Amino acid sequence: MCFSTIANADDWVEIEVFRKELEDFLRNYLELPHDIPSHDMLQRVFAMVPPEFWKSFQKRWRESKVSACD
After folding, report:
1. Hey, which bits of 1-70 come out as E strands?
2. Domain of 52, in residue numbers
3. Cβ distance 12 to 40 under 8 Å?
4. Distances in Å between the alpha carbon of 10 and those of 30, 39, 53?
5. Residue 14 CB partners (closer than 8 Å, separation 6+)
6. C-alpha span between 18 and 16 (Å, rounded)
């Protein structure tokens, strides 16, 4: 999801489209036996992750970006 959001994919449909556009590239690094997940599947999976995790992750992500610029 990281690359998708960096590429300005702002919702689950845009993330699915982005990943489909990169499918050949992704297959160099990932096994995708069931194809690229649909936007519905992505949304369901990420909805299962507790909000506290996302808050912590976003904080660490921002901190890593700031420290990378130092």
Report:
1. none
2. 2-69
3. yes
4. 23, 12, 19
5. 4, 8
6. 5
Going residue by residue through the chain, which has 70 residues, state the pLDDT in tens, using 9 for 90 and above.
555 565 677 788 888 888 888 888 888 988 878 887 888 988 899 899 998 998 898 889 888 877 666 5
| Tally of structural domains, the chain | 1
Phi-psi region of 8 (alpha: psi -120 to 50; beta: other; left: phi over 0): left
Buried b (16+ CB within 10 A) or exposed e, 34-68: eebbebeebeeeeeeeeeeeeeeeeeeeeeeeeee
Asked whether 22 and 7 are in contact (CB, 8 A), the reply is no
Find where tokens 């808050």 sit. 55
